[in-house]
């Protein structure tokens, strides 16, 4: 194949960035109650948890596509017997570096996803609460806010998840069976090649299962918010009162376990649809063939490492988010009050009568 066909052109990058970024202006106008603190805190939580637990995400991704009957003809992918087998196989073939393949993209993905999610979720909550953080919302309102935030986040971040999945699944000798179009050297190379050869459809592979998977976030946030509200009511405190780190950890872990158990099959389908080694004709094709060849068990492949990763990851993310957001909001309030006090002092001085100087 001619090398010229795989060279990244500035025009491709400019077109891709423009197509993704231009709708953002209209999107932000939808939300009136915007606070940057939630964006920063969400990014911080996602980055910290992804940095610590990325190896488990790599293992989970490999197991999710393990043994699939949708694999392209001629591709010999390693077969794994379980969690320990994946771990030893990756370290034997690629060393410890293999467990951290795509870690920079994992950090970027987690930061963008959690930052975006908390940003829009809290903006919607503020809108429902009429900017009164002490106003109690019901389960349905929490689910509605979480679902809308999930849809917006999915639209913005699905391309990043596609690239992350493909880089995680690009393994050793198996990559030689792929055409140059699907062999990636890094994040930008994967992004541009996917867009060039597959268009926006390639960047939004797995979007349909992801869309249905918005229910995952809705369930998780509803359970989490309800537990926080009930706990603070039990303590006779405001619903936005700060809690202990252990309480945040417990509530985040329990809500995540409930959500994962209820919605894991969609995550598996989404991962398989984003896999460059598989040949499929959409979500229905993946669903029927997975059922035919692997049965119910096939829809829950990789759930154990998923629980092992996402439960502590979510707990870490939420703890970092809660503490960072509370600190930022508190600091902003102090700075705002200080500014108001300074302005009042200036007004008082300017309105005071001028006393003639004593000669």
TrEMBL record:
It catalyses: FAD(in) = FAD(out). This is Solute carrier family 25 member 32. Gene3D superfamilies: Mitochondrial carrier domain (1.50.40.10). Solcar repeats lie at residues 33-127, 137-230, 243-327. GO terms for biological process: organic anion transport. GO terms for cellular component: mitochondrial inner membrane. It is a multi-pass membrane protein. GO terms for molecular function: nucleotide transmembrane transporter activity. Facilitates flavin adenine dinucleotide (FAD) translocation across the mitochondrial inner membrane into the mitochondrial matrix where it acts as a redox cofactor to assist flavoenzyme activities in fundamental metabolic processes including fatty acid beta-oxidation, amino acid and choline metabolism as well as mitochondrial electron transportation. In particular, provides FAD to DLD dehydrogenase of the glycine cleavage system, part of mitochondrial one-carbon metabolic pathway involved in neural tube closure in early embryogenesis. Pfam families: Mito_carr. Belongs to the mitochondrial carrier (TC 2.A.29) family. PROSITE patterns: SOLCAR. The chain crosses the membrane at residues 99-120, 140-163, 203-223, 243-264. InterPro entries: MCP (IPR002067), MCP_dom_sf (IPR023395), MCP_transmembrane (IPR018108), SLC25A32-like (IPR044712). The keyword Transport applies. It is found in: Mitochondrion inner membrane. Its main location: mitochondrion. Keywords: Membrane, Mitochondrion, Mitochondrion inner membrane, Repeat, Transmembrane, Transmembrane helix, Transport.
